Hints:
single chain, alpha/beta, Rossmann fold, binds adenosine-5'-diphosphate, binds magnesium ion, ATP-binding, nucleotide-binding, Metal_Ion_Import_ABC, P-loop_NTPase, ATP binding
Amino acid sequence: MEKEAISIKDLHVSYYGNEAIKGVSISVQPGNLVGIIGPNGAGKSTLLKAMLNLIPKDKGDIKVFGKTVKEVRKKIAYVPQRNDIDWDFPITVLDAVLLGTYPNLQLFRRPKKKEKEWALECLQRVGMEEFSKRQIGELSGGQQQRVFLARALAQKAELFYLDEPFVGVDASSEETIVTILKELCLQGKTVIVVHHDLSKANDYFNQLILLNKELISFGEVNEVIQADIIEKAYKGQFAFMKEMGV
Length: 246
Ligand code: ADP
Ligand code: MG
């Protein structure tokens, strides 16, 4: 059997004594495009951050390709939620993407021509090469998100974690991003995307993690999108459920 891309066992995370993640266990095989779905405050961002060792866990075990997160951190690209990024930070598009090459650079080596060419290639893939000299703060939401995807691509990661990549993003950027994520999966990469509702879950993902502090359900999209299961996660938000046609 193939080695699991991600294996999480009995994960607990809390902030100041309030549990945000309660006993979550998941295992994801390589090549999947997985959506993390759940209401506001369900712990979706917390789960991603714990999966990156960015925040401490109370309990539990996280393995990536059978190793600790620390051992394989370079192999994981992370695109944070838009409001977690300081868009006023003075950095050009090209330099932001070049940052993605840093984990693979030897210590004390600056990016050179080779890395710049690769960064431009990644920008081209997301349709942003003409904007390489712009400041990131001068881009639209969709353009910013594409640049951060380019940075993730530049990292040559095996796993891609994206937190709400479609919020504040125009339809054409959303389509570009989804197409690239699907391509990455076809190449055997594993992609985890936080998405706050069920809209397009069917089109975008092949597996879903339905979360509301606890793991409500995990599996193939059609197994998870079932009225009783969704109800459990979105307790009583019936109007929303009707809209989704569940
Ligand atoms: P989601 O991404 O699903 O909306 P979060 O993971 O951001 O949810 O948050 C889960 C819970 O943890 C929420 O109740 C939130 O208020 C709380 N929380 C998140 N980050 C912090 C923090 N840095 N300090 C204290 N509480 C936090
Ligand atoms: Mg969040």
